[in-house]
Amino acid sequence: MKTYLLFTALLLFGCSESKDTIKIKGSDTEVNLAVRLAEEFYKKDPKYIVSISGGGSGLGIASLLNGEADIANSSRALNRVEDSLFHDRNMQLDTFVFAEDAIAFVVSASCPLDSVTVDELGKILSGAYTNWKQLTGEDLPINIYGRQSNSGTHDFVKQKLKIEFSEHAKEMNGNAQIMEAVKIDKSGIGYVGAGYVLGAATSAGNMVKVLKVAAPGTKAISALDETAILNNQYFFQRPLYQFIRSESAAKVSSFIAFEKSAEGLAIIKASGYYPVNK
Q1: pLDDT digits (tens, 9 = 90+) for 209-225
Q2: Longest Cα pair distance anywhere in the chain, in angstroms?
Q3: Per the structure, how many domains does the chain have?
Q4: Per-residue pLDDT tens for 107-116?
Q5: Are 200 and 251 members of one domain?
Q6: Are residues 19 and 138 both part of a single domain?
Q7: Are residues 107 and 226 in the same domain?
Q8: Interhelix angle for 28-44 vs 262-270, to 10°?
Q9: Residue 253 to residues 69, 96, 189, Cα–Cα distance (Å)
Q10: Residue 6: per-residue pLDDT
């Protein structure tokens, strides 16, 4: 991924205003998938240069609002304030749900816990539970690894659990940092996109465990259970959005069409996400 982004940056150095440059910013959850799609799209249509960066859903939406992006990747819908800002500036957006994702709650592979209830997750992440002894019998303080408030994943988890995150939760820049932290911290728990867990499987090895989650009245389900996700049974699944400036619609149409193609859908599925345009 780094090689591709460097290649893109070099190309952009001399043609940042090219009409054939597509700028995509936003969700860290979607960034690896976006890079894979862009790499394959470039092989088919090298006329277009696709520049991709993460930083969170909020950053992507702000970049769209400020004219610094053609597409904002977002793991959440626009909030009321953002919607008002686009309306006040008379900026029209096209909305495309190009995949579905599930949030995986990860702990160290050495953690004896295999599943957790939604209520227990809320108590862990809000700080009501501060020690694993309350769940596993081990006398270890709970270390929470999460995202900053401009992250769509942070927002989604908070709203689903109807909590405020513990003031002691460590705010990380992205999925990779959370995974690395949990891998080496037997007291840690974090949340990442399930697609990222599958994409990082070779580097994570057996050092991270994905907890199954039980919603009220249901059995515990893994975020990696494809059948459960397709049947809309997992409590923490969500759509992944792409917001497109109407001024950029013609320019990005070929890339969006590639995402909807059989090849694009295969890449989405192979990356650990769930295609919605079947």
Answers
A1: 999 999 999 999 999 99
A2: 60
A3: 2
A4: 999 999 999 9
A5: no
A6: no
A7: yes
A8: 140
A9: 15, 12, 40
A10: 35
